[in-house]
Amino acid sequence: MNASFDVRESRDPADTEGSRPSDHPTQLCRICDINRETSICSRLPKDEFTRVLSLRDQFQFPPLHTIFREGDRAAHIYALTSGSVKLYKLLSDGRRQIVGFLFPGDVFGLTNLGGYPYTAETLNQSSTCRFPQKVLDPTRESVPMLERRMFDLAVRELMRAHEQMLWLGRKTAQERLASFLASLARRATERGQPESPVALPMSRSDIADFLGLTIETVSRTFTHLKKLGVIMIPDNSHVMLNNVPLLIKLSEGGAE
Amino acid sequence: MNASFDVRESRDPADTEGSRPSDHPTQLCRICDINRETSICSRLPKDEFTRVLSLRDQFQFPPLHTIFREGDRAAHIYALTSGSVKLYKLLSDGRRQIVGFLFPGDVFGLTNLGGYPYTAETLNQSSTCRFPQKVLDPTRESVPMLERRMFDLAVRELMRAHEQMLWLGRKTAQERLASFLASLARRATERGQPESPVALPMSRSDIADFLGLTIETVSRTFTHLKKLGVIMIPDNSHVMLNNVPLLIKLSEGGAE
DNA sequence: TCTTTTTCTTGACCTCGATCAAACAAAACC
DNA sequence: GGTTTTGTTTGATCGAGGTCAAGAAAAAGA
């Protein structure tokens, strides 16, 4: 193994590990199904792309696997290449707030403190690209485009967080769920997937903890949207959107 | 006037302007009372510091002045040098969510889309350093430390946003207000100010819109914390913290 | 296949915080 | 000073969403 791939040496044993598929970092990302405007290594100039790729480490995780916990030493930055992940914070009594759901191309583990500010857990079978901070840091300094990419990713997350603060602080249960479905649909199209049906890899309980509601209210609100004819629910992990304009209207309190 | 100071040419007329104090950018920031670890130009190497300073533009704004509105073309990045600012998002029916209160050293206007994602409004007499995106962008590419600084600022905001999502989604009114006061106190100490009394430059209505509550609930909760002996309220814009450990405990639901 | 377990839905009731309303306090203006 | 305006507090009532409880429907084992 070439020295530049020797990132296993700098690995933080606190991070839990999944299985490692055989990969050849100097070739293009073979297991990576990402082709987005803004992920960590997309659209970098060719030699810088190769350079960044050589830093990475790929892992696959089973469903419901904890990748890292809030407070763990933040030794890596992750890019999700397939599957989906939830990020959450806990209160001491067990109350939970999910601060984000992630899909392929999304990056997580960004921090400038010592520890991760949230726990990251897979929703289903997922694979990640992992970049050790220790080797990524000097590379960021010498590859301005990479540093800019990191900034863009952080800002994108920040704007998403601000949007969710509006949901949590000022929207009704129905508006929150409509906003959530509309947002999932929009993000699916950004990944080149159809707008409908929307895949819901997370449980009702996860949706509740994301929207600041209880599972009962989430369930009742799904039923209500169904009765309004805005959605159909073929199975519990898919939602058909029958009327996206109306859904968006409902998400902003436009219609009662 | 030297060409490098000619940033007025690139000014976006949509941004509302305050009065411009006479200043000499090649000298050190004279009106800038910031001395923090992480503001936009603090702790840069001397010549880079001078270079970044030469890009800036200083403005003073009166209280309750709208610096920019959500959706305005994002032509500048701002650093608050004195006073305080609120950032908020609106729903079409007027419901408002304040996504952040800013104090000296804080940066706002970070985005990578065309428009600002929130409205920025002063709470009291405030002054800002303003950097035009157009001239800051190439500088960021050639000054890696500046780009890193921007990233750090975005990440700091992101972590603050995640924390507030936990408040909004999962905390009671009392826990939110206690968290808010504890957070203001901590940030004051980070700026080298005493922990108590905490200054509240914002109205009760602003606090309500920040915490996802109504003014009545905010007022009642203040009264309740007062009765518990945790705080004293000499006047409506100051809170004395009598028992910070208990306040923190209350903020996490530790005591009932 | 038939349990057993888990997740989701629905109903009945309750509570925290919202709404409505009035009194009070503090500025701002004359 | 007094009057108006605006912001804050307090009280009375209401309702959206939470809690508790019981079914229904998947999912996981056996």
* Helix-and-strand structural type of chain A: alpha+beta
Q: Could you tell me which chain pair has the largest interface and how many residues each side has?
A: A-B, 46 and 46 residues
* Distance from first to last alpha carbon of chain A: 63 Å
Helicity of chain A, in percent? 25-40%
Dominant shape of chain A:
globular
Description:
The structure is a homodimer of 256-residue chains. Chain A has 256 residues and is α+β, with helices and mostly antiparallel strands. Chain A has 7 helices and 11 strands. Chain A has helices spanning 46-53, 133-142, 144-170, 173-190, 204-211, 215-227, 244-251, and strands at residues 57-61, 66-68, 76-82, 85-90, 96-102, 107-108, 119-122, 126-132, 198-199, 231-235, 238-241. Chain A has a 4-stranded antiparallel sheet with strand order 1-8-3-6. In chain A, strands 2-7-4-5 form a 4-stranded antiparallel sheet. In chain A, helix 5 crosses helix 6 (215-227). Chain A starts with 45 loop residues before the first helix and ends in a 5-residue tail after the last helix. Mean pLDDT of chain A is 85; it is low at 1-15 and 20-28. The interface between A and B is large, with 46 and 46 residues.
Which key terms come to mind for this protein?
homodimer; Jelly Rolls; Arc Repressor Mutant, subunit A; 2 domains; 4-stranded antiparallel beta sheet; globular
Layout: helices, strands, pairs:
The structure is a homodimer of 256-residue chains.
Chain A: H1 46-53, E1 57-61, E2 66-68, E3 76-82, E4 85-90, E5 96-102, E6 107-108, E7 119-122, E8 126-132, H2 133-142, H3 144-170, H4 173-190, E9 198-199, H5 204-211, H6 215-227, E10 231-235, E11 238-241, H7 244-251
Antiparallel strand pairs in A: 1-8, 2-7, 3-6, 3-8, 4-5, 4-7, 9-11, 10-11
Helix pairs in contact in A: 2-3, 4-6, 4-7, 5-6
The structure holds a DNA duplex (30 and 30 nucleotides).
